[in-house]
Sequence to fold (205 residues):
Amino acid sequence: MKRWPVVPTIVVALAVAAMIALGLWQLLIRLPEKEAQLAQLAANPTRPAITFPRFPDDSLLFRRTSGFCLSVASIERAGAGNAGYRLIANCRTGAEGPGMKVQLGTSHDPDAKVQWTGGRVSGWISHAPDSRPLIAGLFNHVPRELVLVADTPAPGLAANSRPDIGIVPNNHFAYAMQWFFFAAVAAVIYVLAVRRRIARAGEGR
Fold:
């Protein structure tokens, strides 16, 4: 049997082509899009302050902002890396609307509590904590919920870290290289497997 199997070869060829297409998509489309977004975000801190947005919009990250918390529905805790934990208030902003999250400050105490009843708060816009798995985030492009990171921490808390463009991931070049690597590995493994099968078939005659 000296010819290559038709159906498996077609299936593998389609899979390799799909992986190469995904790599090109990451390299030629997603990477330029992300670089343009990062350039915009880098300029956002110098732009005029805006009212905290009602709905998620990643183009507004790091903009100066302000809002009014009518009352605090709850205060949650989320990891903050070396800063320990960040305390985030879920605010009511009126009878209608999605409300507002306010990052009040940070603490190294995992049991830290804060007394904060709301009012006017100013700071900058960042992403709220996201519980979605990393893999889900690669394919789900729905904008993440936003949080108002307060300039002045609530009593008993440390100040929030300043805006940092470095926290916005830009992994599209690495993703492209991974897809190209997967395509090459799949093609090499398949070629070696078929050649070995053909060699064995020749020995058995």
Observations:
- The beta strands are 50-51, 64-69, 71-79, 85-92, 100-107, 119-127, 146-150.
